[in-house]
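Example for tutorial group B:
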């Protein structure tokens, strides 16, 4: 299989291809196929970008129809039919049934663009520079989002100081520490040395941080803390939104409404570049054009995003995620955790992680990932020292393929332990 063109001419920054050294040609549903015709089950899901499966036929049909109609392809933020139809669908089918009231901003087409917009708006609205974020966070790779991100290797790539962020221990790090009281003390103590923040940024489930699910009661307490202190609450739902947690928004289980919500990845419906920043109307203080981007009007993504919402509702994808999430939990608990008492399991909905940190062998989780690939499963790592094997299959994967993929994980763990 010819990979020399990539190795000779593509930048050294490439990463996923080093774990999956084959040339892919097709993808359908929950499967990849390579040039040799080998099939792989996908537990990677485009890092959360194809929740509704690869080349979902319902969404694909709408895209082909739009392309064949000579519809607008590029329009910046001008008014177009696809944008109008997406906004109407999102408002009527997603926001109103959940009693959520947001303005929709279309930043650039990626998750980090959505977080950059949220960061700028929070600082503009409050007039404050500092923000609070949590240890273990990943919010993106551009400088503002990267300032909120904690892993050393990502931060090192910035090449400049990443400032105006105070990192708070995540609640799982020190169970004996009341993180809410800690944040309040930082504000109230005139010797804390910490400036009052414009916002608290958080993922309700730290995905890259190792599949760390934040408790619903803790999320409610953060909402109360922010309201009490006139601080904006920003939830990054880029990876764990669009039903990944079992609800469309990952914060629904806490019954809260953040001031700003950022989304990308599967909001694009078909893996197309698309992002939105949802804003409490009271804080929408942007001046026209104050935050913009050439590709903030991805017309194909509007079409796919609308079709994705319709597919999600028609096929009850939220319920699928909850049901299959229980299958994942039960299988891994009974079939994988029993292989070694040092293993741990964390997750919710259809995002789960097997923690190998307590196994002293260096790079053990990476070896499991490599074995999985050999046996026809694509899966990635996460967490501190990349010690977590992260399960994130398409939400519409069949139960049969889901179990088949988990059997590969079990076989791979057994081989590595042996």
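The residue assignment follows.
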């Amino acid at each position: 299989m010819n990979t020399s063109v990539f190795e000779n001419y593509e930048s050294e920054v490439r990463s996923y291809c080093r774990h999956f050294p084959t040339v892919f040609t097709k993808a359908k549903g929950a499967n990849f196929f390579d040039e040799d015709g080998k099939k792989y089950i996908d537990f990677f899901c485009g890092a959360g970008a194809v929740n509704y499966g690869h080349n979902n036929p319902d969404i694909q049909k709408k895209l082909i129809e739009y392309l064949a109609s000579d519809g607008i392809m590029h329009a910046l933020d001008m008014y177009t039919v696809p944008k109008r139809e997406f906004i109407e669908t999102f408002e009527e089918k997603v926001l109103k049934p959940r009693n959520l009231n947001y303005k929709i901003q279309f930043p650039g087409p990626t998750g980090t663009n959505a977080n950059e917009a949220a960061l700028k708006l929070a600082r503009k609205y409050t007039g404050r520079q500092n923000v609070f974020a949590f240890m273990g966070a990943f919010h993106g790779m551009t400088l503002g989002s990267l300032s909120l991100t904690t892993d050393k290797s990502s931060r090192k790539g910035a090449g400049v100081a990443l400032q105006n962020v105070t990192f708070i221990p995540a609640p799982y790090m020190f169970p004996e520490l009341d993180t809410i009281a800690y944040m309040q003390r930082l504000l109230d103590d005139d010797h804390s040395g910490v400036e009052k923040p414009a916002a608290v940024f958080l993922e309700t489930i730290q995905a890259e941080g190792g599949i760390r699910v934040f408790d619903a009661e803790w999320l409610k307490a953060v909402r109360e803390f922010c309201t009490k202190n006139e601080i904006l609450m920003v939830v990054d739902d880029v990876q764990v939104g669009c039903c990944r947690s079992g609800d469309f928004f990952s914060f629904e289980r806490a019954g809260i409404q953040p001031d700003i919500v950022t989304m990308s990845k599967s909001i694009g419906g078909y893996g197309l570049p698309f992002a939105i920043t949802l804003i409490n109307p009271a804080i929408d203080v942007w001046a026209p054009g104050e935050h913009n981007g050439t590709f903030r009007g991805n017309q194909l993504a509007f079409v796919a995003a609308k079709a994705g919402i319709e597919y999600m509702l028609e096929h009850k994808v939220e319920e699928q995620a909850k049901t299959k999430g229980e299958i994942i939990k039960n299988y891994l608990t009974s079939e994988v955790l029993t292989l070694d008492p040092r293993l741990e399991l964390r997750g919710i909905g259809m995002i789960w992680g097997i923690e190998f940190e307590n196994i002293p062998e260096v790079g053990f989780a990476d070896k499991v990932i490599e074995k999985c690939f050999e046996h026809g499963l694509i899966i990635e790592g996460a967490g501190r020292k990349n010690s977590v094997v992260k399960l994130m299959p398409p939400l519409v994967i069949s139960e049969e393929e889901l179990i088949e993929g988990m059997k590969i994980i079990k076989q791979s763990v057994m081989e590595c332990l042996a």
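The radius of gyration is 21 Å. Compare this with the pattern of hydrophobic and polar residues in the output above.
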